[in-house]
Design a protein that fits this description.
mainly alpha; about 55% helix
Amino acid sequence: MPSGDSQNTKGQPGITQAALFGLCPRCGAKGLWAGLAALADRCPACGLEFERYEPRGRGMYLVVLPVTILLVLAALKLDDLVQLPVWALIGLWGALVPTVVTVALRYAKATVLMARLEKEGLL
C-alpha cells in the first residue's frame, strides 16, 4: 500500500469499530449512534453530518429479513435438539433476537454510511 493511502486513513475506525462502539468514520470520536440502531444527526467532534447519508427504508429489509429467517431456523433446530421449557425459550430468544437484529442493523448501517461518505469524498 502506498504511504499516501495510509496517511489518509490514519486514526479512522474500521466498519466494525464504527458499528459496535459508535465511532465517527472520519475522526474516531464517539457519538455515531443516537439510539440502538439510529444514527445521530452529526458528529459532536468534527461536525460530519450522518443523517444526510443514513440508509433508511426498504434497504434495511435486506438485512432484517435474512437475520430473522436464520433466527427462526435456529429456534426450530434448537427445539428439535434440546426440549427446553417455555420459560427458558422466552428468556433465551427474548434476549437474543433484539441483540442480533440490533447488531446486524448497526453493522449494515455503518457499512452503507461509510460507503456513501467515501463516495462523496468526505472520508
